[in-house]
Design brief:
The protein contains 15 helices and 23 strands. It is of the alpha+beta class and 472 residues long. The chain has 2 domains: 232 residues, Nucleotidyltransferase, domain 5, CATH 3.30.420; 205 residues, Nucleotidyltransferase, domain 5 (2-Layer Sandwich). A hairpin with a 3-residue loop joins strand 1 and strand 2. The chain is globular and about 65 Å long.
Length: 472
């Protein structure tokens, strides 16, 4: 059987054609058009859809396809008219227009705690709940529109039905994580009803591909299309991390770490988040700054064409490095301060461009280690950590990750873990496997921490925490 997985990620569309008999696959990527001077986090949904179809057509045109699995990002939102034509830009997770609204709401501790314990989400501009509040406050009458995300828009364009999986909805801040259903009280705050939202369905509730959708992909109509599933949840599936005690750890544009829990795990004090997987709940943490910060540093310090390796050639041992706070795009975990900004501290004239870039690599990982410490405190330390994402472009940075975490780290052999997760869901739907938990994944290369660097990184982490505490 051939499974086509289509993912609309943050900066590009991806498509995987997976053959279940040979266990081989082909992947195509199509970057989104770059809009000069576009505000961060505002995108055109139609352009994203077109890029996704182009990538899918490249791998599937003329082939027999047995199922289509869709993927998307968590936390995107837009308004459409009654015919599902886009009326606002697609507001991605990186869009922080609602930061002032959230800052004001967080002053109400009772509201913040009530919202957190109901949804597993923070009062933070990342979440669509507050993007919708922002749209309403800037003049949009929400009751006149359909609310969509990129995944539900793609589902509509391919099947004619506006549907969203409960997994993707769990990251919107509109779902009661305990009932796994839209929360009527929150909808009342926005002045909308369920009729304005995508139909909520289970992760494997498929619909047939329409003739229009089939024409876009160059394949036959009638193929089952599964609802779009968030890339973070699918990364967890594709990393083989659904069993307890296995932490999926993805370091891409942003970064996230996740552990499966049999029931919602929401700490008393807002810190980590709680979303859904196909089989259980996710206890997780995510940061806004990861390879986006590293790419920013690499391009500005060494030029747009510099590779990771070229930016690392001048690294040297220094006793007094600068400290970098990786909040160029605001803060998610652990503090959830939209207005927090990034920057260098303890900067000295003797620091070179290479020293500064090294501090950026460290700062991103120190922020992630903050999150890991919270997650381990709440769930217990994981017995395995599986790493994927853009971090793999740098052997140096990958080793630094193991050294700072002081844990062996397994490199996920799947180069496209979120696409692979979507494929696994489709395999279960087609009966190729009985359960998602039955899927066997090959072991990956192990990276072990260097004990000789433990004391150095503990000292540097303490300096990071010092400046972190004083930066807001």
């Amino acid at each position: 059987m051939n499974i086509l997985a289509l993912e609309s990620s943050t900066t590009s569309a991806k498509a995987m054609l997976y053959n279940t008999a040979t266990q081989t696959f082909t992947v195509e990527t199509c970057a989104y058009p770059f809009e000069k001077n576009a505000e961060v986090g505002r995108q055109d949904s139609g352009s994203i859809f077109a890029a996704t179809m182009e990538a899918g057509c490249r791998v599937s045109a003329g082939k027999q396809i047995d199922a289509i699995a869709l993927g998307c990002t968590w936390h995107s939102i837009m308004l459409c008219d009654q015919e599902m034509r886009q009326q606002t830009p697609l507001l991605q997770w990186t869009y922080t227009g609602a930061s002032e609204i959230c800052k004001a709401l967080r002053r109400d501790e009772a509201y913040t705690l009530r919202y957190y314990h109901k949804t597993g989400c923070m009062v933070n501009a990342t979440y669509p709940m507050f993007k919708l509040l922002f749209l309403r406050q800037t003049g949009w009458k929400l009751e006149r529109y359909k609310v969509a995300d990129q995944g539900s828009y793609t589902m509509y364009r391919l099947t004619g039905r506006h549907r969203m999986s409960d997994i993707t909805a769990s990251g919107a801040g509109l779902l009661n994580t305990h009932t796994r259903d839209y929360d009527d009280e929150l909808l009342g705050e926005l002045g909308i009803t369920r009729e304005h939202l995508p139909e909520l369905v289970l992760y494997n509730a498929s619909l047939p591909l329409t003739a229009e959708g089939a024409a876009l992909l160059g394949i036959e109509p009638g193929i089952p299309v599964l609802p779009a599933l968030a890339d973070g949840a699918m990364n967890h599936v594709g990393a083989g991390a659904l069993a307890p005690g296995i932490m999926s750890f993805s370091m891409g544009t942003s970064a996230a770490m996740r552990l499966s829990t049999p029931q919602p795990l929401i700490p008393e004090t807002p810190s980590t988040w709680c979303y859904l997987t196909p089989t259980a709940w996710l206890s997780g943490a995510a940061t806004a700054g990861c390879t986006n910060c590293v790419d920013w540093s690499r391009e500005r310090l060494f030029g747009a064409t510099a590779t990771y390796a070229q930016a690392e050639t001048g690294f040297r041992q220094t006793d007094k490095p600068a400290v970098f706070l990786p909040f160029l795009f605001g803060e998610r975990c652990p503090g959830w301060q939209d207005e927090r900004m990034g920057g260098f501290y303890d900067l000295r004239p003797q620091h070179s461009a290479y020293d500064l870039h090294h501090s950026v690599l460290e700062g991103v990982l120190f922020n992630l280690y903050q999150c890991y410490a919270l997650l381990a405190e709440q769930n217990g330390a994981p017995h395995a950590i599986r790493l994927s994402g853009g971090v793999r472009h740098s052997d140096y940075w990958t080793q630094m990750c193991a050294d700072i975490f002081r844990r062996p780290i397994e490199l996920d052999p799947a180069t496209q873990a979120s696409l692979m997760g979507a494929v696994v869901v489709a395999m279960e739907k087609l009966g190729v496997i009985n359960s998602l938990l039955d899927m066997e994944f090959p072991a990956g290369e192990m990276i072990y921490p260097n004990p000789g660097k433990t004391e150095m990184y503990l000292e540097r982490y303490a300096r990071y925490l010092y400046w972190y505490a004083r930066s807001v």
